[in-house]
Structure formats: structure tokens, C-alpha cells
Specification:
GTP Cyclohydrolase I, domain 2, binds zinc ion, alpha+beta, 2 domains, 35% helix, GTP Cyclohydrolase I, Chain A, domain 1, 5-stranded mixed beta sheet, 19% strand
């Protein structure tokens, strides 16, 4: 069984399947950045449209948002913005929603360093908060104990970027990266620590410009204190309580 230690503070409306999330609860989820699932919530027909069709639709919608805000779309500087934003959403910052963009993986045999911890730290990533659609950015740190299989270090980086390029919450990002690496590397022994800044916290809302958020995923041997401590020593971070 895949393990994770990330706790999910999911509010449970009294056990009544028919209760819909009230607006109050929906606001609370957004304000507190709570995710309800480790999978990105996708529609069943999420890829019925081509990327070009999505860009055309988003362009129209984004133009409507700008128009509603009172911006003059005939202005030379604003004219291209809806198309630019639509392309950026589909082809860049949300391209990780599409499984077709999942990085290809080649595993290598690693007979000589079998059983050793491998750590790649300070992987810079840019994501976006799914509650406010403003950036989350920071560093991801990954450790794993090889089952005899290794992947190129650049692939660890690419998987971080792939899952970052979705509307995200940081806990889910940690878990998605961790579970994917457990699957690819054929071991439970994977750790992911993410230290990130949320612009929805720093640039609006409570306007706290110094708060960073740390989330962790520990699987297999990384749940054991000695292994976790060794990993965190490499990162020079204090363990979570
Ligand atoms: Zn947010």
C-alpha cells in the first residue's frame, strides 16, 4: 500500500451524502487551502477538446473577464492579452493537466549504489494555487533509496515541473510527486519536501510576505526516524513535529 503522512484537514459535513458544500464551507476551503483529494479533480471528458479548441474558448472567456472589468480591449497593449493568456494556460502553466505531457522515463540499473539514499534538492518550481489562480513557487527536495533502479536526476526535476504545472495545493503536489516516484522507481522509499511561497498569502488576503509553507511526503523507510533525519540533515531542515 502506498503511504503518505500528509494530513488532510477535510471538513466533514455531517454524514449526509445529500448535503452540498455550503458557500461558507467553499470559502473556508479556499481561504485555508484545503484539498479534498490527492488526485487533481478532473472531468471525465477533460480531453475531448484539442488544445487549439481550448485556447480559442479560453481566449473568449478571458476577453469577457477583461471587458467586464472595464478594460478597453481595442487598446493596442491589451488586444493580444486574451489569446496570450489562453496559450499560456494550455501550453505552459497548466500543461501538466494533460497526461500526454507526462515525462517519458528510462530506468537504469544501479548495481553499485544499491541501498544508498539519493537526494536531489533545491528543485525550483512554479505552480498556481487552485483556489486563487495566483502563483505558488519554491523548492522541492527529493530523496529515495534505490531498489536497484535509478532515473536521471533531470527526470526528478521534470516530474516536479509536470505536477507543478496544474492548478495545485501544496500538499497534493507533494503527494502526487511522491506517489509517482514510488511507482516509477519501484520502491516505497521516497521522500518529498516542498518549501514554497504562496502569492495568495503574500500579495493579498493576510498580506504576509515572509510566510513560507513546508509540506512533506514520507514513504517506506523514510517513515523511520533515522532515515528521515538523515534525509533532513542533507536538506538542513528541521523535521516536522
Ligand atoms: Zn490561494
Amino acid at each position: 500500500m502506498k503511504q503518505n503522512e500528509t494530513s488532510w484537514n477535510i471538513p466533514h459535513p455531517e454524514d449526509d451524502d445529500n448535503i452540498e458544500l455550503s458557500n461558507v464551507l467553499i470559502d473556508e476551503i479556499g481561504d485555508n487551502h484545503i484539498a479534498a483529494s490527492t488526485d487533481t479533480p478532473m472531468k471525465a471528458d477533460a480531453f475531448k477538446l484539442t488544445d487549439d479548441e481550448k485556447i480559442a474558448i479560453i481566449e473568449n472567456h478571458f476577453a469577457a473577464i477583461m471587458d467586464t472589468l472595464g478594460l478597453n480591449l481595442a487598446d493596442d497593449s491589451l488586444r493580444g492579452t486574451p489569446k496570450r493568456v489562453a496559450k499560456m494556460y494550455v501550453q505552459e502553466i497548466f500543461s501538466g493537466l494533460n497526461p500526454a505531457n507526462r515525462p517519458a522515463v528510462t530506468l537504469f540499473e544501479n548495481k553499485y549504489k544499491y541501498n544508498q539514499m539519493l537526494v536531489e534538492k533545491n528543485i525550483t518550481f512554479y505552480s498556481n494555487c487552485e483556489h486563487h489562480f495566483v502563483p505558488i513557487y519554491g523548492k522541492a527536495h527529493i530523496g529515495y533509496i534505490s531498489s536497484g533502479k535509478v532515473i536521471g536526476l533531470s527526470k526528478l526535476n521534470r516530474f516536479v515541473q509536470y505536477f507543478a504545472k496544474r492548478p495545485q495545493v501544496q500538499e497534493r503536489l507533494s503527494v502526487q510527486i511522491g506517489k509517482e516516484l514510488q511507482h516509477i522507481l519501484q520502491t516505497e522509499d521516497v521522500a518529498v519536501v516542498i518549501d514554497a511561497l504562496h502569492l495568495c498569502v503574500s500579495s493579498r488576503g493576510v498580506n504576509d510576505t515572509s510566510a513560507s509553507t513546508v509540506t512533506a511526503f514520507y514513504g517506506g523507510k523514510f517513515k523511520e526516524e533515522t532515515t528521515k533525519q538523515e534525509f533532513l540533515r542533507y536538506l538542513e531542515l528541521k523535521p516536522e513535529a
